[in-house]
Amino acid sequence: MGDDLGTTMLLGIVFVTMWFLAGAPMAQVGAVGAAMLGVAMVALTALEGFRVQRVLAFLNPEDHADGAAWQAQQSQIGFASGGLWGQGPGASKAKWGFLPEAHTDFILAVIGEELGLIGTVAIIGALVAVVASGITIGVRCRDPFGRLVAFGISTWLGVQALVNVGVAVGALPTKGIPLPFVSSGGTAMVVALMGVGVLLAISSDTPATRSGRVARRAPVTRRG
Could you read off the pLDDT of 74-96 as tens digits, one per residue? Predict the structure, then answer.
């Protein structure tokens, strides 16, 4: 309803994932997933023409170099300019008007230009570590509700990061989804940090955490 198809599809993926992990039959999950995908395709082609242009620009970027493919091409130029070690912090040229939305949707291209492949891999590795930690918390959690919430938050952060990285490197059509914990934007940052806070709260229910608390509280006795 808010004309944000990317976030709507992200929420749909989280819903289907949590529904599947909750034990829903594969036939139902597949049917609902296919229906949601069909609705997304209708919205993609019928609601706003710019979305179709983005897909066409993704398939044939050379034909839309001055239009819908401009952002994606400038993003890839930023990565190429950074090379292995980058141009140095603050030395990006793409962010000075060449790359639209460089501080939000395409922040990874600026990082790639300034910090190179090494910096880009470090950022992606940190995001992978956050998602992997969330999945680990979900696996260890004894409470079924807490387990589903942990998996849902991990799916949300992981898919959102994957889409943003895919768009920045040209592997996916342009889509306005921020990079968690990195892109500029107060709401996105606050909500992502709230998600991590929920994960930390759920982690207190894991056996390892409980045994650690018991061990710290146990009195120490000595003979003699």
Answer: 888 889 998 999 999 988 988 88
